[in-house]
Fold this protein.
Amino acid sequence: MIAGPAVMDTDLPLKLFSRGKVRDTYELGPDQLLMVATDRISAFDHNMPNGIPDRGKVLTQLSIFWFSQTDTFQENHLISGMVPDLPAALKDHRDQLAGRFMIVRKAKRIDFECVVRGYLAGSAWNEYQESHTLAGEEMPPGLRQSEKLAYPMFSPATKAESGHDENITFAQLKKELGDELATGLRDASLELYKFASDLATRRGLILADTKFEFGLLGEDLILIDEALTPDSSRYWDSATYQVGASPDSYDKQFVRDWLTRAGWDKESEPPRLPDDVVAQTRERYLTAYQRLVGKPLFPPKPRYER
């Protein structure tokens, strides 16, 4: 399927609730929000001047997939992603929104990232190299990059509006939120990771790590934002995985690598992404969806013989 132009922003006749790096969120009355995933893409804390077509649809549809897979044991904020459920005020925007929106319940967001790590990668590998710890917990000597951990570890982080999240210990999280809520976040995160990791394994993928966001709806802890997408998770191909290296992942690392090779200083305005980088990044997102869900996001149209 040939991709259309990237959807870089939305301008809807609704009150804007928030605008993030990828999502534009609008108010739908007192208790609901409309979350719209654009095709914007950021790297090194900068939004790129052009986006990745259909990226927002992949992020939305994968989140809906995971919400539906896990709602039997973890309540979430999803109400609907179906076009007929959009309010009448958006009737002229249905084509623009199709596939990239979620109507969700408005919850009180808990301002911490709930990270679960099954493998030693990313900032966890950096921490281990510096101090032989992970999330402040002492780790065995001699571990290698990308090595599977003895058991999945809960590694919370502060949620930064700009810049990088900062890893904290579970003890710090308990101090901030109290024992009961912190423990609930840890247990829910580990259960979600185990379920998703098992499913990914059956599909030939490794879920190296992921991060969740939670909110409170009354006293109920619910999963919010996105879930287990290539933006919030590190997926590796089981067939090419090797300990001691940094495996290719189904995310925007391809964009980061190109920017580094291009010599961008990561401070000035970023360069426009070349067409081949856009196309290959889009293909990685679509492949992640197909591998996890078991079918393509855009099924080929049937061919009819004359």
Q: What stands out?
A: DSSP finds seven helices and 16 strands in the chain. Residues 108-251 form a domain with the D-amino Acid Aminotransferase; Chain A, domain 1 fold (CATH 3.30.470.20).
